[in-house]
Amino acid sequence: MITRFAPSPTGPLHLGHAYSALCANDLVREMGGQFLLRIEDTDSTRCKPEFTDGIFEDLSWLGLNWPSPRIQSEHYPTYWQAIDQLDAMGLIFPCSCPRREVEATGLGLGPDGPIYPGTCCNKSLKDARPADALRLNLRKAQALLPQVLQYEETGDGTQKTCRFITHDITPQIGAPVLRRRETGDPAYHLACVVDDAVQQVTHVVRGADVAPLTPIHLVLQALLELPTPVYYHHPLITDETGKRLAKISQSKAIATYRAQGVSALEMRRMVGLDM
Ligand code: GLU
User: Fold this and answer.
1) How many A from CA of 104 to the centre of ligand 1?
2) Of 13, 207, 219, 262, which is the most exposed, with the fewest CB atoms less than 10 Å away?
3) Which residue CA neighbors atom 3 of ligand 1 most closely?
4) Domains of the chain, earliest start first
5) d(CA 189, ligand 1 centre) in Å
6) C-alpha of residue 123 to centroid of ligand 1, in Å
7) pTM of whole model > 0.90?
8) How confident is the model at residue 246, as a pLDDT?
9) Which residue has the CA at smallest separation from atom 10 of ligand 1?
């Protein structure tokens, strides 16, 4: 069993992150296996090295350890190889539409943001300008995909098979961005799917907020012929008022509790985990 914790260094880690990392670590502690750390720092406008340092400090303080972490910003060529593979299948198109234009088409909001109307889908990579986004032509990909994609969802001692019909998800997802507009950074879905395979992750432990995006990951795994791990989308930690903790909420940062003298064991209890 191989699990991973894959934070984005866009702010200090909070209690929700502590819960997620501890859940991933507990799973391998119980079953035997390896816990890995991956720094998802592909958003060059928001990620900062000091937040990466903070992640190492917080997780060590929590008592976790991991072999050499995978830093996504050091592996861009690997992600471009995956794009080339998808392009060879005729599934990539460049897109110059700004987000507000996509929003203005009024197709609504899907799990991956405003639903893309397909404006640029007939362009090919030859037409790409450096600032263009690269999108996956999901409508076209449908023909190459199994009609039903499925994965195993595990968690508190239960395991169930989740299925979805590719035709049904396409209209809600649109055409996922795989390389971001302007910055040219790889997008989360692409880097995450490639790295879960590179790191041979068998069990992805992450928050329930990411579950609606998992179909995109299954589509990419099917197209790139990568294995699909087992998923555990854990419940989210909320504050006293039931509101989800955002990374920006400094008051709930792990570092703040640490500075106040809270111990790692107390933090385990705070997030509802037994010793
Ligand atoms: N970097 C993502 C986040 O912090 C990770 C999601 C995942 O575990 O796949 O939300």
Assistant:
1) 28
2) 262
3) 7
4) 1-74+238-275 (3.40.50.620), 77-195 (3.40.50.620)
5) 9
6) 31
7) yes
8) 56
9) 7
CA 7 / ligand 1 centre spacing (Å)? 5
- At 62-111, the pLDDT tens digits run 999 999 999 999 999 999 999 999 999 999 999 999 999 999 999 999 99
- In this predicted model, what pLDDT tens digit does every residue of 97-150 receive, in sequence order? 999 999 999 999 999 999 999 999 999 999 999 999 999 999 999 999 999 999
Q: State the pLDDT at residue 79.
A: 98
Q: Which atom of ligand 1 is nearest to the CA of 204?
A: 8
Pocket of ligand 1 (CB under 6 A): 6-8, 40, 192, 206, 210
Ligand 1 centroid distance, CA of 211 (Å) = 11
Ligand 1 pocket: which of 3, 8, 151, 244 to mutate (most atoms within 8 A of CB) = 8
- Nearest ligand 1 atom to the CA of 192 is 9
pLDDT tens for 172-231 read: 999 999 999 999 999 999 999 999 999 999 999 999 999 999 999 999 999 999 999 999
Is the pLDDT at 248 greater than 60, yes or no? no
